[in-house]
Amino acid sequence: MADASSRRRSLPRGTTLTALASGFLLLLCALFAFPFLWMILATFKANPQIFSPFPLLPEEFHLRHYRALLSGEWIPYPRQFLNSLFIAGVQTLLAVGLSAAAGFAFAKHSFRGKRALFALAVLVVLIPRQVMVLPLFTWMNDLSLLDGPWSVIWPGAVSGIGVIYFTQVCKRLPDELLDMARSEGASEYRVFISILPLIKPALIAYGLIHFILAWHEHLIPLVMLSTPEHMTAGVALSSLYGSSLRIPYGLLMAGSAMTVAPTALLYLLVQKHFKSSLAELTLQ
After folding, report:
1. What's the DSSP call for residue 172?
2. Is pLDDT of 113 > 60?
3. Is residue 195 within 8 Å of residue 170, measured between CB atoms?
4. Are 228 and 106 spatial neighbours (Cβ–Cβ below 8 Å)?
């Protein structure tokens, strides 16, 4: 009887703590969501209204900033958006493939210089990107790739974080499964291809992270690309800030909203695999 009464007394306290925690989380979500909501609503406002956050809603909803942006009146944004999509997509595919192959080699094979090469992958993570800009610029200039998409794709196609990540993922694969495939006469290439379905959540999770990083990369495209038609959307929009007072801020808000949209949509599409991959990593 005493246990039952104490359990009844503890229920209101637990309910109160849950309500307080839920309210605090809702407040944090509102604080984080407010700048994005303000940015989206600012795309429908005139310049004088944008500088005052309240009232939040515009006086009237119109699409003139989106029309001006997509028509190329100020910058060739549609071409730049496609440039960003191509660069981020191809770089992500290369990074996922190369990192998964390297991680498989480090996790399941022994070879001379293995520790030195893995230490080099860790070193790539530790070295700031700013330090490597000048050597990368010289390298791309020697290869005659400057002011082209491949000058941005190749520097990000090899990822130290990806190598370390897939090394840990592949270590969890049972050796017996790989030996079974080899006993059937499969080459190491076929063995590697056969394990890809087993690490599908990890491939999708890393692909999502790398795509977001590549999509919002600013330093390398800023240095490598000079022609407006070859620029990425992020670099082109940042060049408009402060360049002229004639440029409507609503147009900049519209460009920012459209630039953020692909990564948000991609996360919504693959969030199930992303969460399952994170759950597997936390259970290690």
Report:
1. T
2. yes
3. yes
4. no
Q: How buried is 214 (Cβ within 10 angstroms: 0-12 exposed, 13-18 middle, 19+ buried)? A: buried
Q: What is the pLDDT of residues 135-181, one digit of tens each?
A: 999 999 999 999 999 999 999 898 889 999 999 999 888 888 888 88
For residue 196, give the DSSP letter. G
List Cα–Cα distances, 270 to 66, 74, 200, in angstroms.
28, 34, 11
The enclosing H or E element of 102 equals helix 77-108
Chain-centroid distance, C-alpha 59:
35
Residue 79 backbone dihedrals phi, psi, to 5 degrees: -65, -40
Q: Which two tokens stand for residue 189?
A: 């290439």
- Between CA 230 and CA 238 the distance in angstroms is 15
pLDDT of 211 = 94
